[in-house]
Amino acid sequence: MSLHTETSRSKLIIYNAIIEDAGIYRCQATDASGHTEEASVVLEIYQRLTFRDVQSPQEFRHGETAEVVCDVISSPVPVVVWYYQDKEITEEHHSRYQVLANNNLQIHQVTKADEGVYRCEASVEARGEIDFVDIAVVVNVPPVLSVFQPSFNATADYQESVTFTCITSGSPDPMVTWHRKGQQLEPSEKYIFNKLEGGRSMLTIRNIRQVDGGSYSCKATNKAGSQERELFLKVFVQPHITQLKNVTAVEGSAAMISCVAEGEPLPDISWRRASDAQTFMDGDKSRDGRFEVRGRHGKSVLTISGVRLTDLGRFDCEAQSRIGGHQKSMFLDIEYIPKFLTNHTIFYSWEGNPVNISCDVMSNPPATMLWRRERFTISEGTPNMQIHGSEGKSVLEVTPMSDRDFGRYNCTARNNIGVRYQEFILAQADVPSNPYSVRLSAVSQRLATVTFMKPDSHGGVPISYYLVQYKELGSQDWRDVRSHSVQTTVVLTGLEPNTTYEVRVAAVNGKGQGEFSHTETFQTLPIREPSPPAVHGQRGMGKAYRLGLVKQDDGGMPIVEYIVKYKTDKEEQWMTKLVPGANDYAMLQPLQWNTRYEVEITARNVKGLSEPTFYQFFMPQKPDITESLFSGLGLGAVVGLGLGALLLLLVLVDVSCFFLRHCGLLMCITRTLCSKKTATSGKGKEMEEGKAAYLKLPLKEENGKESLKPDTIEIKVHGDNSLHIKPDDSKA
């Protein structure tokens, strides 16, 4: 404001007048005498159309009541009209639309379809003033999440991957995040994020492990709100036995074997005893009540009551589920008091002869062993005694020097479970008693078999062998024959025929020889004719037949010869063949084809002839020439002959093609050679008129035997290509 005062005039100037400047202004004048007069002036200011801070776009949430703000002022008050899509909005035609007293546009339950540009038009008709503003209305739709597969199954430790998929919609497009246990997941080698068209967002979990199982959430967020859906990953884990230890128990006590396994789902646990493959399940109990299985929550306990040594060994724990199985083994070791393994407690020896007294012990843990005699401990320095020890065995070597060294010895075995004793007796040994029941069997001209019974007493020392003595009756010189080991049968050889012998038997052990048995007498058989020989036949080569000769009893003298007589079944006269007695076969040849033969074989020694042995055989029909030719050849020779014959046939065919059809390998060679000779002279004929070629092929047997008739095939080829063969040659 600016005030200008003159002598009789005053001016109040208002620059840039605003609505607030309107009102009543009073001008007051006072003269010199103090008389005052005043006058009033009413100032009216008209506001032009003004839109104040109209925002565009204006955003609203889907479904709510939207109020589109259009703040316009003027003086006088303007008239406001709203337009949408070039059409005036009236309450008559748009029930959800309402223009409020403050000129704002209210839209009930706004939807995405209401989105667009709205025009707010204001006018002052008195002044003819009009103006408008376009306001963009944006409707934000909250996210909508959908999950087609809310749960997945996977197996851990198999490099498997699982992909979760969320499908989102909303406006503006929602931002999708993935969460687990309240924490947002970030991209990594473990978690892979992908976004595809259609609002599909995917989370891939790689290399599934047991810790990856559980709940995951997919969260979609935009300006209108957020929505979250849960997904679940079920991770199956192969059974794995985490605890199984070897157990040591004392015989007779109880043993508890524990097996702990994990997996998803929790596996069932069973036990298997390796010694007999017997299986125990949860709740099982053995027939004798000693084995019982109890388990829960992935733990199984096998309880063995009254542990026995037979329980020693491997036990297998197997965890099994529908995903797979896992097996581990443990060893049940049993500690027990020493046990002596032998009841042999009496040993025999004699003065000067060392003897080993063995104390064999089975124990766990290993036992320490001591030897005592008459309450005195035997040590390494004890005269004429030595101790040799190894695990589970202690040997006391005693060399008796007098009667005092014979008697009782004590072996003591001790471990931390207990102590045991075993007493041994060292007794003086004696020579064996005499064998009895001496018998002679299989007596022949040169041989005799002696059998006898073992003596009743071996003298405390094992028998080493038996001594058999024999001599001719009336002679004073006994001959000795030892038995093989401790056999009670001895064969006497080299005896004279028709001779009486005496025989007796004694047993020998380490102490010495015992008494002889009662003397027995026997007589060898006199010399006689041999027994008939045994015969077996086999066809020979060609017209020959081989007779196998098996010598029987020779009657006490060697076979000099075999007399073989043979004839056909249609003849009366015998043919004779002498075969030396040392031979084991006779070859009969030549024989007739397709004929039955009768054979009579007699063996002869110096005493005379044996009874004859009769035999028959049949000679087959005569084989054909092919069989004759090849019967003596092997497979390789026959194959070679076949290939040779095939080659010869090919040569004959090629020669025939050469002369008859002017073709073949020979023709090709001839043309090649002739073409070189006649290249300049023009000679084209290979054979002159009337000129003939001859081919002579001798036929022989290939096996080197008699040659066939030395005929030849003579082929005559004339110039007219005719072939002429001599009539006689057709045989060849």
Automatic annotation (TrEMBL):
It holds the Pfam family I-set. One of its GO terms (biological process) is cell adhesion. The chain crosses the membrane at residues 629-652. GO terms for cellular component: plasma membrane. It is found in: Cell membrane. It is a single-pass type I membrane protein. Gene3D superfamilies: Immunoglobulins. Residues 434-527, 529-624 form the Fibronectin type-III domain. The keyword Lyase does not apply. The keyword Nuclease does not apply. PROSITE patterns: FN3, IG_LIKE. Keywords: Cell adhesion, Cell membrane, Disulfide bond, Glycoprotein, Immunoglobulin domain, Membrane, Phosphoprotein, Repeat, Signal, Transmembrane, Transmembrane helix. May play important roles in selective fasciculation and zone-to-zone projection of the primary olfactory axons. This is Neural cell adhesion molecule 2.
